[in-house]
Design goal:
Blueprint: H1 10-20, E1 37-41, E2 44-47, E3 52-55, H2 58-61, H3 70-80, H4 94-106, E4 111-117, H5 120-137, E5 145-149, H6 158-162, E6 182-184, H7 201-210, E7 214-219, E8 223-224, E9 230-231, H8 234-246, E10 250-254, E11 278-281, E12 293-298, H9 299-302, H10 323-337, H11 341-356, E13 365-371, E14 374-379, H12 385-394, E15 397-398, E16 405-408, H13 416-431
Parallel strand pairs: 3-15, 5-6, 5-7, 7-10, 10-11
Antiparallel strand pairs: 1-2, 2-3, 4-12, 8-9, 11-12, 13-14, 14-16
Length: 436
Amino acid sequence: MTVTVNRLPADQLLALDRRHVWHPYAPMPAQGPVFPVRSAQGVYLYLETGDRLVDGMSSWWACIHGYNHPRLNQAAHDQIDRMSHVMFGGLTHQPAVQLAQRLVQWTPAPLQHVFFCDSGSVAVEVAMKLAIQYWHNRGQPQRQHFITLRRGYHGDTFAAMAVCDPVNGMHHLFRRSLVSQYFADAPQVGFDQPWQEQDIQSFATLLAQHQGEIAAAIFEPIVQGAGGMRFYHPEYLRRVRELCDQYNTLLILDEIATGFGRTGKLFALEYGPVCPDILCLGKALSGGFMSLAATLTSEEISQTFAQGEAGVFMHGPTFMANPLACAVALENLNLLESYDWAARVQAIAHQLARELEPCRQAAAVKDVRVLGAIGVVELHQPVDMTTVQPQFVAQGVWLRPFGRLIYTMPPYIIEPQELSQITRAMVSVISSLPSP
C-alpha cells in the first residue's frame, strides 16, 4: 500500500514552522530567514521554492558522502526489513558487533572496547563519566575534575558544557549551574608555524598544580571546532600526552568533528601521533544518515569496572547501538574504504587554499586558513546572519557562518566546479562586507 503525504506549499510550511518549531541556537519564533528543504541529492539541497543549493556544510560536518547515497540507502533498506531497533541491554546484534570491530581496527591498538552513544554530546558525557568512575574504581574518588583548553567546544549537555570555553563559548549563561573545571590557555602556535615550548606552559602548570583532583584532560586534537575553527601545532598534542603520562592522568580526545578524514588524516590524533585513553567519535560515523556516536577506551580502563563499587559502568541509553544506525555506519565505513578519500580531501584542501586566497585582501578579513577539507575565513567583526546567509543562498550556496567565522566543510564527493561555486560565493560576499 502506498501512503500519500500531503505536501504543504512553501509559505504555509514556513508559517507553521515559525509558529511551532524551535531551531538550534535561535529564538522562538525564529527571527532570521529559514529555508525549507524538499529533498537532497549528492552535494545539493533542493528547496521547496525550487532553488538548488550546493551544500558547503555537510550538514554540520556529518554528511561526508553527501545525501541520498545509494549504498547507504540500501544498507538502511536491508536493515529495516530485519529490525529498526532493539534494546541493547542483555541483547546484541550483528551491525553493532561488526561496527565495533571495525572501529577497533581503525583506531590505535590500545583502544579495544566500544560504548555506543546517541550523539556527540552524549559520547563526551560517557567519556567523562568513564574517567570519573575509573578513578573511583582505583580508590581515588577525589579525582572528579577535568582540565581542558580555552576556545574548545564539546557539546551542549551539562557535563560537555562544563568543558567548553567558559567566556568565549556559547554556555556562559549556565556557568552557575556547571561544575567548575580547569582551563588552560588555548594553543597559540598555528599548525604550520615553528613550535614554541611556552605554548604548553599553561597546561603543564595547571596539571602539575591540580593533578590529584583531575580525572582526565579533554580536548579536540589539532582543530578547535565550534569554539573558533582554530588549527594548532601537532607538537602540542604530543606534549599533552607526555604530561598526562607524567602525572598519571587520563587523556580524552574529542574527534567528533575531526574523525573519519576531515583533517586529511583518518583521525586528527595521527598528526601526533598519539593514542588517548578514551576517544569520542560521532558526526561522520554514520555519514550523517542517522544520529550515532561512540566512545572507545582501553582494556586497562574497562577492566576496572567489574571490580569497582558499582560493578558496572553506570550509563545505558535507550537507543544505544540502534541497529539501523549501526548498519548504515558500517556501510559508511565500507564506502570510505572503497576509494582514495585522502586524495579527495587533499585535492579539496589545495583548491580551498587557492580559491580562498583573495579573501585576504578584503578589509573585513582577519585570517584565512585551510586544513584538509576545512576552509575558514575569520573576520574582524561578527557576521550579521540575517543579511549574510540570504546572500549565500542567492548565489546557490548553503553555508552557516557563526560568530566571526565564514567557513566551509564540504562533502568529500564534491566536484571541483561545485567547490568553486562555494568559494566564489565566499569571496564575493566577504569582499562586500564593510571595513571593521
